[in-house]
């Protein structure tokens, strides 16, 4: 009994020592870390210029009387990104904590050079998660983009992230691509990545000041600007708004959007796209490759600004046809642009691969050229199901519709 | 243990534990009375009423302890009968036997043959009757002292259910159980435990429902107890529990007759101790401590949900502070970004590491809790006032403790009160601190190690030979109806019948 309890005692003493002596190797108190919300990567003087947007928690949480800026932006150069991260510590008092990054901004210059190399660092490290969105700074440096303060959202990274998510759902000329999806794009055969662009409107240096967010219409603001098309990992061109929407329609990334069609005798009808689904199918017949796109659109009337009778089924038929034409048009423009840039951003290659793996093996080495020969057949089916809560338009009653 | 204790006793009070040979009752009445007076040191509450037994013309004496007896019974049914009895007795017969058989209008009668028995009875509230010339005495059941009667439950309160609670009198308590179970199979075995206190202990069980082996085991454990005094049922609990080295309770206790009656119908054993309203139940499993009596009085759906809530409360009460410490100091990536920022803002300027912060707050809470129990009730409100101010506001406003930590400690405190059993919440109180230390040293890994150790320990426990974690481990599907869940009664009652058949 006494030998056993003696052993037990010594075991407990050893355990107690362990608690005191362990040193807690990975312990970091909350006030010893700086939470990074966004990271920007520029290419300058043949080096990476790493920019980090660090949250100032005192300002962001609901405490009164803190007049400091909600975020602080630090930059450091480095031949490798990790060097940049380490060099940052010379200008910051705390360890930067990268797990909560929402946004990574890459400069256009870097994107033209190729994004695979910097992405390797982001994917390899275990502290950085893969659920942040990657965007391209269009016309500005990533450092400038991260410096702009945004209204309502105190943390600009959250602004960029949320605005992108909302725009992707409700308006759709953007592509919210997260790191894991981007790496899939880069690694997969038969598809090239796209990334959303972001642009600063106004003078970037003014955007850094608190005054910018104190105004009701900030003079400097961030805005999403089209989709950047890549060839492999290199930026080759930008899709405009129409082409971007076409891209989203073809790749089935779109949820809702809005468009307008013209009336037979002038004026417009606003159409709200409530749901849209596209199925992509590849086909190889006697060496001839083609892609079938089947799109189903369910839409509502959102506004009527001309004299038409919505109770007439024939009118709705006509509107269906017009929406169909608009849909085909944006999709065709997107395809045309991609063919011009010579990059298959839609993943047609994957569809061909699925349809005929044998044939794919023959064409894949030269796919960006062969892609230009593809026949794209579009089948758009539109059904306008809702006409809103009023039947007859006030425009009809007023009798002064635009003529 | 026994010899050790009596050795210690020997130095102080040699009289009591002196193994005195049994003193026979002398034929001469004065000898007996002198013996009594000497042994009790002429204590004033031992009343010796000497008179003459009319029927035989012999001296007689009635001995009783004032305060423990019902004086009306002694006056009306013993003294009056004996003093006025006129029928002359046959001289050959032992007068004691005749009196016992024909004269006393008292229910409980026994014949005593030596002085030790006399003391046992007199000091427990019976009256002893001596008649000159007889070498035996008579004890009449005259127990009747002031007790506070059956009052309302004070520890285990319910919204719906019986309000009565056990009292300090073992007879009242057995009666309360009898009133719930009117079955001749409800058996009661009596013990006197404690060399000095000679406390009445009773073991009750439903014969045929409780396993014979369990009854025999409980009996033998009770008989093995060697101790000077039993003052509360927890003294018994400590002496008969399976393992001494555990912080988990392996016997259940309740002050509610309905709970005890229900446990008896489930085949368990109740151990009642005179002088305490808390009745022990054996065996008691982990699941027992998370069941409230009200679970059976409300509809099964809400009872099941509340039971699940209690299990969740167990987890929170055990691990909330340690999880907070582990996650905020090791695993910040697990916290949602907004929450992390707000936690981080609260921790700005806090001088202590999260672990020290947690220790301070948990320690303060434990001190407050203990102080609230110990202090006179009349100044209790002052304490809660200070407690609220110290914990709730001043510490946070002074920037010594973060508000989040106060919230965590408060949640932990609330959760530790959801158990119907105080004993289990004590076990959690103790375990919380090592778990916090593990969390502060190794993060979640430490918590997992700690939890693993706790589960291993729980698995090693037994209560009267039954695995402590059953019916979860080993898994008994049939008993899941009333463990984590509380299924409708129709299903539960089947189970009781099955147990009865098997026994």
From TrEMBL, chain A:
GO terms for cellular component: membrane. The keyword Lipoprotein applies. One of its GO terms (biological process) is spore germination. Residues 226-388 form the Spore germination GerAC-like C-terminal domain. Its main location: membrane. Keywords: Germination, Lipoprotein, Membrane, Palmitate, Signal. It is found in: Membrane. It is a lipid-anchor. Residues 27-199 form the Spore germination protein N-terminal domain. Belongs to the GerABKC lipoprotein family. This is Spore germination protein KC. It comes from Paenibacillus methanolicus. The lineage of its organism: Bacteria, Bacillati, Bacillota, Bacilli, Bacillales.
UniProtKB/TrEMBL annotation, chain B:
The keyword Nucleotide-binding does not apply. Keywords: Membrane, Transmembrane, Transmembrane helix. The chain crosses the membrane at residues 269-290, 311-330, 375-394, 400-422, 434-458. The keyword Iron does not apply. Pfam families: GerA. Residues 1-23 are annotated as: Disordered. It comes from the Bacteria. GO terms for cellular component: membrane. GO terms for biological process: spore germination. Belongs to the GerABKA family. This is Spore germination protein KA.
């Amino acid at each position: 009994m006494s030998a056993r309890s003696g052993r037990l005692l010594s075991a407990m003493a050893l355990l107690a020592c362990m608690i005191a002596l362990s040193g807690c190797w990975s312990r970091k108190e909350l006030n010893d870390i700086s939470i990074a919300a966004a990271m920007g990567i520029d290419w300058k003087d043949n080096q990476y210029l790493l920019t980090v947007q660090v949250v100032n928690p005192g300002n962001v949480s609901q405490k009164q009387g803190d007049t400091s800026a909600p975020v602080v932006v630090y930059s450091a150069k480095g031949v490798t990104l990790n060097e940049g991260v380490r060099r940052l510590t010379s200008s910051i008092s705390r360890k930067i904590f990268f797990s909560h990054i929402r946004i990574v901004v890459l400069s256009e210059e870097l994107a033209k050079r190729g994004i695979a190399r910097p992405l390797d660092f982001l994917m390899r490290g275990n502290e950085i998660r893969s659920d942040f969105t990657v965007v391209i700074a269009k016309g500005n440096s990533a450092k400038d983009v991260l410096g702009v303060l945004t209204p309502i959202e105190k943390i600009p990274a959250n602004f960029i992230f949320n605005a992108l998510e909302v725009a992707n759902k409700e308006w759709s000329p953007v592509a919210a691509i997260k790191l894991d999806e981007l790496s899939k794009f880069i690694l997969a055969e038969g598809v090239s990545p796209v990334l959303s662009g972001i642009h600063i409107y106004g003078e970037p240096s003014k955007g850094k000041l608190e005054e910018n967010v104190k105004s009701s219409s900030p003079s400097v603001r961030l805005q999403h600007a089209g989709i950047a098309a890549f060839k492999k990992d290199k930026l080759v061109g930008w899709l405009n708004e129409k082409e971007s929407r076409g891209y989203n329609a073809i790749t089935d990334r779109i949820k809702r959007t809005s468009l307008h069609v013209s009336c037979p005798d002038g004026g417009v009808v606003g159409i709200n796209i409530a749901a849209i689904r596209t199925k992509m199918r590849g086909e190889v017949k006697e060496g001839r490759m083609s892609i079938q796109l089947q799109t189903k659109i369910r839409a509502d009337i959102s506004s009527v600004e001309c004299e038409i009778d919505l109770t007439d089924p024939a009118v709705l038929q006509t509107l269906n046809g017009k929406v169909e034409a608009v849909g085909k048009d944006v999709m065709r423009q997107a395809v045309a642009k991609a063919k011009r840039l010579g990059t298959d951003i839609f993943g047609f290659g994957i569809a061909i691969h699925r349809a005929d793996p044998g044939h794919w093996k023959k064409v894949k080495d030269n796919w960006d050229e062969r892609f230009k020969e593809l026949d794209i057949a579009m089948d758009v089916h539109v059904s306008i199901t809702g006409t809103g809560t009023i039947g007859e338009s006030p425009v009809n009653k007023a009798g002064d519709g635009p003529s | 243990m026994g010899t050790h204790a009596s050795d210690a006793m020997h130095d102080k009070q040699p009289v009591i534990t002196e193994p005195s040979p049994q003193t026979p009752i002398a034929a001469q009445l004065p000898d007996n009375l002198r013996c009594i007076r000497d042994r009790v040191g002429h204590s004033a509450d031992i009343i010796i009423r000497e008179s003459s037994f009319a029927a035989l013309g012999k001296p007689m004496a009635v001995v009783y302890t004032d305060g423990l007896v019902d004086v009306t019974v002694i006056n009306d049914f013993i003294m009056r009968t004996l003093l006025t009895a006129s029928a002359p007795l046959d001289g050959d017969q032992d007068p004691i036997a005749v009196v016992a058989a024909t004269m006393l209008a008292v229910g409980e009668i026994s014949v005593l043959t030596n002085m030790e028995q006399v003391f046992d009875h007199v000091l427990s509230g019976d009256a002893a009757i001596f008649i000159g010339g007889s070498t035996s005495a008579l004890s009449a059941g005259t127990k009747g002292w002031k007790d506070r009667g059956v009052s309302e439950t004070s520890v285990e309160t319910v919204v719906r259910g019986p309000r009565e609670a056990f009292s300090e009198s073992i007879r009242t308590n057995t009666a309360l159980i009898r009133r719930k179970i009117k079955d001749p199979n409800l058996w009661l075995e009596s013990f006197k435990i404690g060399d000095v206190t000679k406390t009445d202990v009773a073991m009750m069980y439903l014969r045929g429902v409780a396993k014979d082996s369990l009854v025999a085991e409980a009996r033998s454990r009770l008989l093995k107890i060697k101790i000077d005094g039993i003052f509360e049922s927890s003294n018994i609990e400590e002496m008969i529990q399976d393992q001494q080295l555990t912080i988990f309770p392996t016997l259940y206790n309740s002050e509610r007759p309905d709970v005890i009656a229900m446990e008896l119908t489930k085949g368990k054993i109740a151990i009642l101790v005179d002088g305490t309203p808390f009745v022990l139940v054996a065996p008691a499993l982990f699941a027992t401590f998370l069941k409230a009596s009200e679970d059976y009085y409300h509809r099964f759906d809400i009872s099941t949900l509340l039971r699940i809530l209690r299990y969740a409360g167990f987890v929170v009460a055990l691990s909330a502070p340690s999880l907070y410490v582990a996650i905020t100091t090791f695993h910040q990536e697990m916290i949602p970004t907004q929450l992390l920022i707000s936690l981080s803002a609260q921790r700005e300027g806090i001088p202590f590491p999260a672990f020290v912060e947690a220790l301070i707050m948990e320690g303060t809470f434990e001190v407050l809790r203990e102080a609230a129990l110990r202090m006179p009730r009349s100044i209790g409100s002052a304490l809660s006032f200070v407690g609220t101010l110290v914990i709730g506001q001043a510490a946070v406003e002074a920037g010594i403790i973060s508000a989040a930590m106060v919230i965590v400690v408060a949640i932990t405190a609330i959760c530790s009160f959801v158990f119907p059993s105080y004993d289990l919440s004590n076990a959690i109180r103790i375990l919380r601190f090592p778990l916090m230390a593990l969390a502060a040293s190794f993060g979640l890994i430490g918590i997992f190690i700690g939890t693993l150790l706790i589960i291993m320990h729980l698995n090693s426990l037994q209560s009267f030979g039954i695995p402590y974690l059953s019916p979860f481990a080993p898994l008994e599907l049939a008993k899941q109806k009333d463990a984590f869940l509380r299924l409708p009664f129709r299903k539960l009652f089947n189970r009781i019948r099955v147990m009865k058949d098997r026994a």
